[in-house]
Write a structure and sequence with these properties.
Helix content is 67%, strand content 2%. By secondary structure, it is mostly helical. A hairpin with a 2-residue loop joins strand 2 and strand 3. The longest helix is centred in the C-terminal third of the chain and has 30 residues.
């Protein structure tokens, strides 16, 4: 969206009401800038790129200081008179993007230095926010400075609870940390660290921080990589089953096509290991818990091992987030022992009844999809085409289901390789 004209005015030291006359118009006459809705934009990206390259090469302008000053000025202008959200966000979170956004004519080392300077400036300008620490870690990682990325995330761990955006960003912090630890090397220890921290980023250890769809989507995709490095073909391998679980659970986050393709790949690779499929969300949660806990037990790094006892890992909030009407496994077990949920009230009983009713609706949706799919396949269809057409029809049927059950019904078929549909093919 360009730069907010108020930031530009403060940055170059002219009164805000004069920025049009003294800055924007002269730039426009040189075909370099245009004004739109309170923002100043370059006319052509190639012109902007050429100016940046020439400013460093010919005039010795230090772009690291330029970006740092732009970040500082954006924060100052925001506090003194307000800046558009677009300008504030784009500039303060520029660090991780700058390596690729800056002109390729600038050397990679120089682009990395500019990006890191911008990310550090955001922390200095608003030290009360955790999101900028995450940005700096990601910027280091993208610059392939993995040890620095790990260090910044480990070193800030004791201060994170004091940050004003702790609850909204803490899961993203742990996820980025998990990726950085995983990229430190290619040994099992690095994969274990990735799985341990990635799992904890979705766990109840970080409650009451909410789990957003992006948290679930990105972390399940990342965990699939970590568990894939640890999975073996043994029937009860906890990592193989945990990888199957994250593919199952990840689909419930309504992933974009690219992320969904990762889950499809995890399932294909799990099929080669003959890893079973989870029957439902609670079972997938049990498999995920076992995989993450096992990673915590096998991990050798004392700093990471001290974060949490593996037996304390749980994912009740994740289960409720993905399937709001389900009952966490621990509560089910307690209920079966005592005959009721501890401290149950009439409203608790209604919730359990509602959960059962919801499961009934899911099952009814599954049956509807199966019936509609095979009815749409003509009896004279060649055998090799029948399943393909039935799956095509099933996807259409699923898209018409109620939003309250659509995700669960779709996951029932997709995570099992459409076997529930195939097994119900009518006999000739």
């Amino acid at each position: 969206p360009g730069i907010d004209e108020r930031v530009l005015a403060d940055l170059v030291g002219v009164p805000r009401e004069w920025v049009q006359r003294q800055v924007v118009r002269p730039l426009g006459e040189e075909a370099a800038a245009v004004h739109s809705a309170g923002h100043v934009l370059t006319r052509h990206s190639q012109v902007a790129a050429a100016i940046l390259v020439e400013s460093e090469d010919a005039f010795g302008v230090d772009l690291t200081e330029i970006w740092a000053q732009l970040v500082r000025q954006t924060v100052q202008t925001t506090r003194s008179g307000g800046v558009s959200h677009g300008t504030h966000s784009k500039i303060l979170h520029a660090g991780p993007r700058l390596q690729r956004a800056l002109p390729q004519q600038i050397t990679e080392d120089r682009r990395n230095a500019i990006a890191i300077a911008a990310a550090k400036a955001s922390i200095s300008a608003e030290p009360e926010r955790l999101i900028y620490v995450i940005d700096l870690g990601r910027t280091y990682r993208k610059a392939e400075m993995i040890e620095q990325a790990v260090a910044i995330l480990r070193d800030n761990l004791n201060d994170i609870k004091s940050k004003v955006d702790f609850e909204s960003t803490i899961r993203g912090y742990w996820y980025e940390w998990s990726v950085c630890e995983g990229e430190r090397g290619t040994t099992d220890e690095h994969a274990l660290a990735n799985a341990w921290l990635g799992g904890l980023s979705l766990s109840d250890h970080l409650n009451p921080a909410p789990i957003t769809p992006d948290n679930g989507k990105l972390t399940c995709a990342g965990l699939g990589v970590a568990f894939g490095k640890l999975a073996q073909s043994a029937p009860d391998c906890p990592y193989a089953k945990a990888r199957r679980a994250v593919a199952y659970l990840g689909r419930l986050t309504n992933p974009d096509p690219k992320t969904a393709s990762y889950f499809d790949r995890y399932d294909r690779e799990a099929d080669k290991l003959r890893t079973p499929y989870p029957g439902d969300v609670p079972e997938a949660i049990v498999w995920l818990t076992a995989g993450v806990a096992q990673a915590g037990r096998e991990l050798q790094d004392p700093f990471l091992k001290a974060l949490l006892e593996p037996d304390q890992v749980s994912f009740n909030l994740l289960q409720i987030t993905l399937e709001p009407d389900s009952t966490p496994k621990a509560e089910r077990a307690q209920s079966s022992k005592t005959g009721a949920v501890p401290g149950a009230t009439p409203s608790d009983s209604k919730l359990l009844q509602f959960s059962t009713a919801h499961e009934d609706r899911i099952q009814a949706g599954i049956e509807r999809v199966i019936n509609e799919s095979w009815k749409a396949v003509h009896p004279d269809t060649p055998p090799e085409e029948r399943l393909r057409l039935a799956i095509q029809k099933a996807k259409q049927s699923i898209s018409r289901l109620s939003p309250s059950i659509k995700r669960q019904v779709g996951a029932h078929f997709q995570t099992k390789g459409w076997e529930p549909l195939k097994s119900r093919e009518p006999k000739p």
